[in-house]
Specification:
single chain; alpha/beta; Nuclear Transport Factor 2, Chain: A; FAD/NAD(P)-binding domain; five-stranded parallel beta sheet; 18 helices; 31% helix; globular; monooxygenase activity; NTF2-like_dom_sf; FAD/NAD-bd_sf; flavin adenine dinucleotide binding; oxidoreductase
């Protein structure tokens, strides 16, 4: 049950080993009720593909029992063992675990309280018969020996580029060539899944290059690595947009991805009889029809830009655009600029406009969570994603699994104390913002940034300087109002205030990802899969009922062979592993009985 390197008298290790032994016995004897009794009454089992072929959290003994009963025969788990000595703090024993199922190797993370499982994470690591060709399995590259039919590496790549999508069809088509699509493409490449990535922009990284000049990643470097190739040790903590663009272009080439730039999907339809997609694309003027078996929409976590319909928009004589189309602040010196919105993009754009001597007013319609970047790194992310964490032996993979081991239902319990510490540390900063009239929140339950991100994907700003401008009045603020009407040279707010305007930026966010399904496939399919993102927390913009996981992300949907992939760099990196394994299993004909798909409650 345990490695010989484990300490035989270490009490936390003994407790974890005893629990694993009991679980193994209960699962082997097909007694799901006994297995469920090893959990607290309200304990949680989060499974990432290993047992359920789904991304699923089971909460409470009854749900855990039902899942075990439904999956035991096909999963047939075995070879459970501790990977290293368990630890204990505040009465909670934590342990790293490995195991196997009939078709895969897995890894898990266990939290015990008083001998019962509080949380249990199981993840699929690799398919036994189809491991990635890494380390000892890496290709030789050079083909030694004598052969008249030998091809060089370059000739093989050129042949693949010339045939895939033409005389040979991809098994998987990824629509969207940002970091999500590229990272997933790299995972599928390592699993020998023929894949094409398409994007409307010419080159990998252009999604970043085309954004406003001041944009950079607000998450720190340790949180943002891509699969397989981590950023080098001299990489800046916060990556500028053009630098991340260059990295993605390099990554695409080095990872040998089949990336079609300047390519738009004009239509897609699933053929039930042939069990494949018919996808019409325009590749830089060339019309092609592709027939992938699997279709992935990797358009980020966001859908089509939300642009409000405000009376008088058509009469405006200045410039107006969505934040996704904002070019930067350079051409607006001396202009009267209105930014509708108060989240990340709004703050960045307001700051850049102020830096370029524009007269800028932010219109804040509802409250926003603000957290200073340094405080986020120190008090929230630092234990897992920081230079100190790396020095203490924390790897990116272990950090991802540790983060994933906390079910969303209890995640606020972990975050609320951290954000209480943030509020105390930065009390003066928050007071200055409040005094300026800015509407602040820490989430409806005080759980802060990441829970807001998971629940609604909006409503926050990681402060890298703009908040001080708001507090000082350099960025003018109108809070608790919106734009009621637009005149040729001004906007009228809902409180009756009229502001002169040469530029209006709609930093008003995006719709659900299934909006792309409606545009590319059909409204019927978009409604069939339902809304993407959110988990049913019954908070603002995340209506119930509770679902426990993000809707439709990285897992099977109610439209066969259609997948959604997106999120920040951390999520794209981590969950691309599970999505790639699901697609590979289907390509190889492995039985993938999906357990626990949620009904569709919300269409958009």
């Amino acid at each position: 049950m345990t490695h010989t390197s484990l300490t035989p008298t270490h009490e936390p290790t003994l407790a974890a080993a005893a629990w694993i032994e009991k679980l193994s016995t209960a699962l082997s004897s097909n007694t799901p009720t006994e297995a469920a009794q090893l959990f607290e009454e309200e304990g949680h089992w989060r499974d990432l593909v290993a047992f359920t072929w789904n991304i699923k959290t089971l909460s409470g003994r009854a749900a855990i029992r039902d899942m075990i009963a439904a999956t035991q025969a096909t999963a047939t788990p075995s070879n459970w063992r501790l990977e290293e000595d368990a630890t204990e703090a505040n009465g909670v024993v934590e342990a790293w675990i490995s195991f196997e199922t009939k078709v895969a190797k897995g890894r898990g993370y266990l939290r015990l309280r008083n001998g019962l499982a509080w949380t249990f994470l199981t993840t699929m690591v690799e398919l036994k018969d189809y491991p990635e060709k890494r380390n000892k399995l890496r290709p030789k590259g050079a083909e030694h020996g004598a052969s008249k039919s030998r091809q060089t590496w370059l000739e093989k790549r050129q042949h693949e580029e010339a045939t895939l999508g033409y005389s040979e069809q991809p098994y998987c088509l990824i629509i969207g060539g940002g970091q999500g699509g590229i990272g997933l493409g790299a995972r599928l490449r390592q699993l020998d899944v023929p894949t094409i990535i398409i994007d409307a922009l010419p080159k990998p990284g252009d999604t970043w290059r085309n954004r406003y000049k001041s944009l950079s990643l607000h998450d720190p470097i340790w949180y943002d690595h891509m699969p397989y190739i981590p950023f080098p040790e001299n990489w800046p903590v916060f990556t500028p947009k053009d630098k991340i663009g260059d990295w993605l272009e390099m990554y695409t080439k080095v990872m040998e991805l089949n990336y079609w730039g300047s390519t738009r999907c004009t239509q897609a339809k699933f053929d039930e009889e042939r069990q494949e997609w018919t996808v019409e694309v325009d590749r830089d003027g060339e019309k092609l029809t592709l027939h992938p078996k699997q279709l992935v929409l990797a358009t980020g976590m966001s859908g089509i830009p939300n642009i409000p319909n405000i009376p008088g928009m058509d009469s405006f004589e200045g410039e107006q655009h969505h934040s996704s189309q904002h070019p930067g602040g350079e051409t607006y010196k001396g202009k009267k600029c209105i930014v509708l919105g108060a989240n990340n993009s709004a703050h960045d754009i307001c700051c850049a406009l102020w830096e370029n001597d524009a007269d800028v007013t932010m219109i804040q319609r509802s409250s926003t969570h603000i957290i200073k970047s340094d405080s986020l790194m120190e008090l929230v992310l630092g234990g897992l994603y920081s230079e100190e964490a790396v020095e203490n032996g924390m790897t990116t993979y272990k950090a991802d699994l540790t983060f994933a081991s906390i079910p969303f239902e209890i995640m606020p319990q972990f975050h609320i104390p951290a954000y209480e510490a943030v509020a105390e540390k930065d009390a003066e900063f928050y007071q200055r913002l409040t005094d300026a009239g800015f509407m602040l929140d820490f989430g409806e339950d005080g759980s802060g940034l990441f829970m807001k991100y998971l629940r609604r994907g909006s409503g926050y700003y990681i402060d890298v300087g703009a908040s001080d401008l708001v507090a000082n009045g350099d960025i003018k603020l109108k809070a608790g109002v919106s734009i009621e009407r637009i005149n040729p040279k001004s906007v009228v707010l809902t409180d009756g205030t009229e502001l002169d305007a040469d530029l209006i930026v709609y930093a008003t966010g995006y719709g659900s990802m299934n909006g792309w399904a409606a545009k590319i496939i059909s409204q019927e399919v978009a409604d069939k899969v339902g809304k993407c993102w959110g988990m049913g927390s019954n908070t603002a913009k995340d209506p119930g009922p509770w679902e426990g996981e993000l809707r439709n992300m990285w897992k099977p949907t109610h439209q066969e062979a259609l997948w959604f992939h997106g999120g920040n760099l951390h999520q794209s990196r981590h969950y691309s592993q599970y999505l790639s394994l699901q697609i590979k299993a289907r390509m190889e004909g492995i039985d993938t009985p999906v357990y626990g798909m949620e009904p569709v409650y919300h269409l958009n």
